[in-house]
Amino acid sequence: MIQPNHFPSRKEVTAIVVENGLKSRFDQLETAWEQALVQITESFKLDSSTQPAQQLPSSSQTAFTRTPGHKLLIGLAGPGAVGKGTIGAKLLDDFGFSKIVNTPTRPAREGEIDGVHYKFTDLKTFQTQQSAGAFASSLERPGRGWYGVEKTEITQKLHDATTGCLFEENPENIIKIFQAIDLPQTDKVLVYLLPPEPIIASSAQRLIYRLSQEPDSVKRQLTAEVFESTLGQRQIDEFGKLSLIIDQPDVQLLVLINAQLETTLATLRQLLQ
Prior knowledge:
By secondary structure, the protein is an alpha/beta fold. It has helices at residues 10-19, 23-43, 52-55, 84-95, 123-131, 151-160, 171-180, 199-212, 224-231, 233-240, 261-272; strands spanning 71-77, 98-99, 103-104, 135-141, 145-150, 164-168, 186-194, 251-257. β4 and β5 (145-150) form a beta hairpin. The radius of gyration is 19 Å and the shape is globular. The protein starts with 9 loop residues before the first helix and ends with a helix.
């Protein structure tokens, strides 16, 4: 049982996973993540024999170069429950970045503000925009409708921004967005956040803590659907798309292991100054 407002130990995570009949899937995904980490590390021609995640382009100053006078366009990605929203919000506050928002066809959820969190639209309008080539990237998310990032949203926000812009997407869509528009005097950076290894154990720990904050006990359950949508194979497949950046010489990659929020933020602040 998930205790309210409680960050679980690894032992408690295992007990909750077993209790909900997810241990077999948990083990499968852990193995799949280990394989994905090795494959990505080897695709960058790096040593994958020990702690492959630690070998990826990451927090050293030499892994990142800012061009004087250029604005930053940062695509933020990572698996579920890794802290993208928290870190993104901190970067917006610290650097005065503008947030590039998605255009979805789903209805607004409680607390979401049109034009702030998303630019909501209906399916017919979305399809008209799509046919006209208005989106730098668009995709259909099963059960959640269509999502797109408008080209004008990017160019206008970059034009108005003092330092740059930030958006959240999966790696493949981030690269598509970078490719879709001519962005002079802009440094393009894909920041991918990983939890500490073992990936699934760390991610499940954070997911269970997030669920523990739900006031409704019914929502405070680690169901197979929640587990799969947040930590499942789709997340691993998206991580595998990082290899696409090899053919993008004008895009920089930062893979950061978000073990401690303040440490990750300090690294990003140092690199982005």
